[in-house]
Amino acid sequence: MKKPIAQLVLIFSLLWTSGSAAGKRRPDGRIVNGREAFDGEFPYQLSLRRLTIHICGAAVLDGSWAITAAHCVDGHERKPQEFSLRLGSVRRSSGGSLMNVRTIYKHPTYDPKDMNFDVALLRTQIGALTMDPNAAPISLPESGEPIVENLSAVVSGWGHMSSTESTLSSVLKYTTVLTVNQQKCHRNLMFHGGVTDVMFCAAARNTDACQGDSGGPLVAQGKLIGIVSWGVGCADPYYPGVYARMSHPSIRRWVRLLTKL
């Protein structure tokens, strides 16, 4: 059973990382040394599934809309019927509710070569994502809202638990990270293309540099400040995890245009 899942994860990773820059910028997929969540602790957390297999994290925005990373759905926008969302459960493969994705919207300026604007919206049946009593939306930051250095934030996901183990976690894991100075982050990742103003970094020494499942939520002060995007290596303090910046004006305008949120 483990072998097919590992093969599918590898296939998706290879598809996502086409292009020279993306070959260095690997979609992020691990919670290292995280703690197991209990039922109801992360009501906004979703498991994005393709052909019944968990491929990414996502987050509830309201009853009809979820948000994830663009690289999680890149190339499959016209096949939303292949995707579903598990909500209301900390278990990756059981519990909660399963809802079908009806429409996929990738950010119009997403670039798979450099992972810029790595955000996608998923539309479901009206009210589907708040029908489960253990599911609830997460708030968004205001447009242009700054992310201060050393801000404590929580990232969660079902990703690989170490850089050498390709098995997904069966139970949702989470850990606390701190946001990194933007200039320092850019310098650290210079040889991997650096970061743009649509991205920001967060890290935690000896616990989590890869940050979590691709497309998963990074939450601070009750707001979804970031979407897990890409990383270099795993659990390396010199290479912090990189997130899509949810407060970036171009992202917030686009989200508001589609969802009215």
Automatic annotation (TrEMBL):
Enzyme's top EC category: hydrolase
Catalytic activity: Preferential cleavage: Arg-|-Xaa, Lys-|-Xaa
Entry EC number(s): 3.4.21.4
Localization terms from the record: Secreted, Extracellular space
Keyword match Transmembrane helix: no
Any one Gene Ontology cellular component term annotated for this protein: extracellular region
Protein known as: trypsin
Gene3D superfamilies: Trypsin-like serine proteases
Gene name in the database record: Dgri\GH18287
Main localisation: secreted
Origin species: Drosophila grimshawi (Hawaiian fruit fly)
SUPFAM superfamilies (UniProt xref): Trypsin-like serine proteases
Signal peptide: 1-21
Domain of life where this protein originates: Eukaryota
Molecular-function GO terms, alphabetical: serine-type endopeptidase activity
Keywords: Disulfide bond, Hydrolase, Protease, Secreted, Serine protease, Signal, Zymogen
Biological process terms in GO annotation: proteolysis
InterPro entries linked: Peptidase_S1, Peptidase_S1_PA, Peptidase_S1_PA_chymotrypsin, Peptidase_S1A, Trypsin_dom, TRYPSIN_HIS, TRYPSIN_SER
Family: Belongs to the peptidase S1 family.
Residues of the Peptidase S1 domain: 31-260
